[in-house]
Write a structure and sequence with these properties.
260 residues, alpha/beta, three-stranded parallel beta sheet, 42% helix
Length: 260
């Protein structure tokens, strides 16, 4: 990734730069093959052929059928589509769903919606390491269970659930700085050119502490002081060392300021 300044980006769990190979692959569809895939004319059919080829490629790589691949606008839409469709299509078989207490908000909110629609939802807890115990999942399952939904890698603390070596592995570090407000520390770091976050970008509008940290037993004060550093393929060792050099000075100044 070409860098135009000395800023350090450690918020890969929120979003990542587009890989150059993806940019190159998409270039023809920005100007040359630009038709609406739903159109019947040749421009549209060219675009449709590209979409269907992409669908087949994805299916082949993950061992699925192409008609099982559905393109959506993002993760929240995908979660809602998968969970709600599974729930309502299997309601004649049961009405019970099992999930974990540290799922993404889009999953938890979807499950709460389903509870209002008459479904039962069991929220399995986690240990202090953020890991779901498979035995707890087994105990939660009953004859009416139609869906078990557990995220592979947690977007807040990076814990990897024991569901096999599949999916994208997250690289997150969540650190609590005692007696320092997390949001204030984010601002202080940003002023030095370091971008990180207090948690999910999806919860930007709320000042509530992370439900994930509370679920693993972190106290309210520590949760409000927590900052998430998420690394990506472009993060370098020198950048991490710079952050480690910068952090002590910022946290010390903030602690001193909090005493007055």
């Amino acid at each position: 990734m070409t860098r135009t300044d000395n800023r350090i980006y450690l918020d890969y769990a929120a979003t990542t730069p587009v890989d150059q190979s993806v940019v190159d692959a998409m270039k023809p569809y920005q100007k040359e093959i630009f038709g609406n895939p739903a159109s019947t004319h040749s421009f549209g059919q060219e675009a449709r052929a590209a979409v269907e080829q992409a669908r087949e490629d994805i299916a082949r790589h993950i061992g699925a059928n192409s008609d099982e691949i559905i393109f959506t606008g993002g993760g929240t839409e995908s979660n809602n589509l998968a969970i709600q469709r599974t729930a309502f299509r299997n309601r004649n078989k049961g009405n019970h769903i099992v999930t974990s207490a540290i799922e993404h908000r889009s999953v938890l909110n979807c499950c709460r919606f389903l509870e209002h629609a008459g479904f039962r939802v069991t929220y399995v807890g986690v240990g202090a390491d953020g890991i779901v115990d498979p035995d707890d999942v087994n105990r939660a399952i009953d004859d009416d269970t139609i869906l078990v939904s557990v995220m592979h890698a947690n977007n807040k603390i990076g814990s990897i659930q024991p569901i096999g070596e599949i999916g994208k592995i997250a690289h997150n570090v969540n650190v609590s700085f005692q007696y320092i407000d997390g949001e204030s520390l984010i601002v202080g770091l940003d002023m030095t050119g370091v971008a990180c976050s207090t948690g999910s970008a999806c919860s930007f509008a709320t000042l509530e502490p992370s439900h994930v940290l509370l679920a693993i037993g972190v106290g309210l004060g520590a949760a409000q002081s927590a900052v998430r550093f998420s690394l990506g393929r472009h993060t370098t060792k020198n950048e991490i060392n710079r952050v480690l050099d910068i952090l002590p000075g910022i946290t010390e100044r903030m602690r001193e300021a909090s005493l007055f």
